Each structure stands twice: as structure tokens, then as C-alpha cells.
């Protein structure tokens, strides 16, 4: 009788709590801490977001550092420098923005020389991406893993910070009507080569002593 009375009281208390807007507690059997085979399961900590400054998203999805983003200093991970808003481009002659200013000087000169020659033929070359901070490049790689499902798949489309030439200012991505086609044909005379078959916008200084470009790699992982 004592057990039945206790059970009846518990049910009554639960009903009162629900009526007052307090839902009953989750039964222990439904919680991660419920005993399993005599061992108490410890709930897993939520997975930390990598490079938590502003969260993680592809460049087209975030519009710049949030107002409360911490300042970048010693020991901090700069996950923003080198980022461009979606659709934003730079002239190769505007050296004030970081993505242009921090390019290898030889690469910048080559791009500028190529842009002048292209303009004389009615083709405008703009830069859509240049130097990137190591943290930002790794952010892109992490986003690639999320999008493509694995590091192996992501590495075909975006390089890790350890191997990306953007991080050391030795690669540019270009845009403009007909710019990629013009550069593929004429870039080698300025030392500029398309590197990946699946990226006709990515160029590096890569000609040999005879002015020839290396064979195309299938992708950033190939």
C-alpha cells in the first residue's frame, strides 16, 4: 500500500507541475546519464566549432567579422584576413587591400603586366582572391570538409593551410569576362600558369626557364 500511495502522490505532483507550466522531468531512462550495463554514461560535450570567431561558414554566407569579434593578437587565430564579400573584386593595381598588398611582389608585378596587356586587347582582369591568412584558409578547408563529406574529397577543391599557395601570397584567383581564357593563352609569357584543371581562375608563377608551364594537375589534391 505504501508503494501504491507513493506512486499516486508522484502522479498527482507531476500533474500539478504540468498545470503550472512546469513539465515533468525527463525520465532517467531517456537521459544520456542513465546506467547502461551497470556503467553510468557520461554525456558527450558538444563539438566545438573550429575557429570560433564569428562561427564557420563559406565566404558567400558571412558578411565580415561581427562587431564583437575579438581583436587579432599574439596567439589568436585570424580567420578573416583575406576574405572578400561575395561578388567583390579588386583591381590588380589597387594595392591597398590586404589580399593584394600581401601578394609576393613578383607575382603582383606579373599580374599587373598581364592585366595591362589584356586591357589593350579589350579584356579586363580582376582579382577575386589573393593572399589569405592561414586561419582563413583553414576555415575554407573545414567548410569544404563539411560540404563534401571528407578531407579527401574537400582537398580536390580547396587546399589546406599547410599547402595552399594563397597563404604565402603566391597564388591569385582572377575574374572578368574572358579573363581566364586570355590568361591561359597568354599568361605564360608573364610567368603565369593555370595549375589545376578544375580551376581555370587560379594562377601562379610557375613557368620553367624556357617559359613553359608544368602539366596541369587534375585538382588541388592531384
UniProtKB/TrEMBL annotation:
Protein name (database record): M15 family metallopeptidase
Keyword RNA-binding appears in the UniProt entry: no
InterPro entries listed in its UniProt record: DD-CPase-like, VanY-like_core_dom, Zn_M74/Hedgehog-like
Signal peptide boundaries: 1-28
Listed Pfam families: VanY
Record carries keyword Signal: yes
Low complexity bias locations: 27-36
Top-level division of the source organism's lineage: Bacteria
Family matches, as CDD domains: Peptidase_M15_like
Region Disordered: start-end pairs: 24-71
Alphabetical keyword list: Signal
PROSITE patterns for the chain: PROKAR_LIPOPROTEIN
Domain D-alanyl-D-alanine carboxypeptidase-like core residue range list: 103-186
Amino acid at each position: 500500500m505504501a508503494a501504491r500511495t507513493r506512486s499516486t502522490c508522484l502522479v498527482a505532483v507531476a500533474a500539478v507541475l504540468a498545470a503550472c507550466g512546469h513539465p515533468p522531468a525527463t525520465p532517467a531512462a531517456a537521459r544520456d546519464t542513465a546506467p547502461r550495463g551497470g556503467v553510468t554514461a557520461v554525456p558527450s560535450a558538444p563539438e566545438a566549432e573550429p575557429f570560433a570567431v564569428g562561427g564557420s561558414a563559406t565566404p558567400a554566407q558571412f558578411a565580415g567579422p561581427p562587431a564583437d569579434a575579438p581583436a587579432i593578437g599574439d596567439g589568436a587565430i585570424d580567420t578573416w584576413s583575406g576574405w572578400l564579400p561575395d561578388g567583390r573584386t579588386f583591381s590588380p593595381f589597387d594595392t591597398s587591400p590586404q589580399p593584394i598588398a600581401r601578394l609576393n611582389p613578383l607575382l603582383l608585378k606579373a599580374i599587373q603586366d598581364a592585366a595591362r596587356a589584356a586591357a589593350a586587347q579589350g579584356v579586363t582582369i580582376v582579382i577575386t582572391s589573393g593572399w589569405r591568412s592561414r586561419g582563413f584558409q583553414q576555415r575554407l578547408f573545414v567548410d569544404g570538409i563539411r560540404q563534401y563529406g571528407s578531407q579527401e574529397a574537400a582537398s580536390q577543391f580547396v587546399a589546406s593551410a599547410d599547402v595552399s599557395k594563397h597563404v604565402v601570397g603566391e597564388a591569385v584567383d582572377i575574374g572578368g569576362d574572358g579573363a581566364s581564357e586570355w590568361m591561359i593563352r597568354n599568361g605564360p609569357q608573364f610567368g603565369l600558369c593555370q595549375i589545376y584543371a578544375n580551376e581555370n581562375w587560379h594562377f601562379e608563377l610557375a613557368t620553367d626557364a624556357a617559359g613553359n608551364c608544368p602539366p596541369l594537375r587534375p585538382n588541388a589534391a592531384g
